Amino acid sequence: MYCFRSCNSKGRNGWPLTIFCAAFGSLRVRFWAERQDNMKNSPRRIAIEILNRIDTEGAYAEPLLDAALSGTTFASPLDRGLLTELVYGTLRTRGRLDWIIGQLYRGEAAALETAVWNILRTGLYQLLFTDRIPPFAAVNEAVGIARDVSPAASGLVNALLRNALRKKDAIAWPDMAKAPEKAIAVLHSHPSWLVRRLLAQFDMEETIAICRANNTIPPVALRVNTLKASRDQALAALAEAGIAAEPTSFSTDGIILSSPAAGLRETTLYKEGLIRIQDEASQLIARLVAPEPSERILDLCAGAGGKTLHLAALMENRGSITAIDLHSERLQMLREEVKRLGVVIVETRTGDAATPDESFLKIFDRVLLDAPCSGLGTLRRNPEIRWRLVPADLNKCMQNQKRLLKSAAEYVKPGGRLVYSVCTVTPEENEIVIGDFLRNHPDFKLLPPANLPPALIDAQGYFRTSPHLQGMDGFFAALLVRTV
Predict the structure, then answer these.
(1) Among 301, 373, 397, 423, the one annotated catalytic
(2) Would residue 301 show up in a list of annotated catalytic residues for this protein?
(3) Rounded to two decimals, what is the model's pTM?
């Protein structure tokens, strides 16, 4: 450090200034060291690291956020909330943010490093889409992070963010009348190819409504575990815990929280297995399967088992459910939930559902194939999906779904039922898959569901939900029966 007086002179308290200078220098070094440590664990820095991993590794936001929030680094609810908002908010508004960067940056934006893109995006999000973060704090920390991860870009970050503050009302946006596809893509932060597909399927007004709904924060929906409690009992327990909630509109087992509840997993009713977090549309799939107690059920591609566990509850823990998934770690999560919810009729197996198992041929009363899909019906929860998918991925999904459905059909006994479900809205993965299957399997026919609200069944007899219509995730499902 610099000292502007002779170090041999005395301070006002009589101490030599050499000692004062050394002490002050030590304090300053410690201050900056602590500040750097704090910045390394700041919500803004961790948000950028998560966004970088999403872009470079194909990771998903939810597990990365869960891992970041599971420790003691972010004990403050404000920090936890800021981290969550920065990740999801930046992903949901990325199209607008990138347009602004393109308007203000004079260089070749495509040449910017991933980390610099995400520093700029999170900085702009704080400046333009939040009202509780002081602009100086957003700019200063963005510049500080840039100095650490890409020193050469710190000046760019500083200049662009300050320029955005000055010119935010002068940004030139695409003209909706002249270029609707581009305008919707930018203003509502969806890739152009997806907007183009939506415009081919829906009119402009509904396309905009879909995109707007995809950018909303989804409500927290719970499924009551009826093996342990009724919905009224669960609602009463939530009220006692100070959590406001109300019944869902369509699922008879569902509850919607009036606002996010950070401590939900710490409540007694959660720990004792009375509730499970599950979107309302997902809850309706088990209702579509409509299993009876004592039946033999197969759940292919079971994943972490949300639908498996619901099937067990509908069966009153009587009968048997075989849950198969390709990923053993997902089945381990299912086994943990089996214990928490008190389910005793589920057997798990690791395996490829596309490879027929001869020991399973025509022995199951009901088979559920919740097939892997593009996930475009869950963009509210998984906003990163839209920036990762390309049109060719939809065809890949469709081909895989056809193989899985063909295999699943082998396990259904005569008179048994097969449910095909996906959390997406694309025709390739929905009615085209079913149409192809029925043409090649004359021993199956489509059966319109009789146990679900008519408002959720279309003219063809398919189950459909959408965020912009019912406030649920976008699901498609078909109920098929084996006639011989």
Answers:
(1) 423
(2) no
(3) 0.89
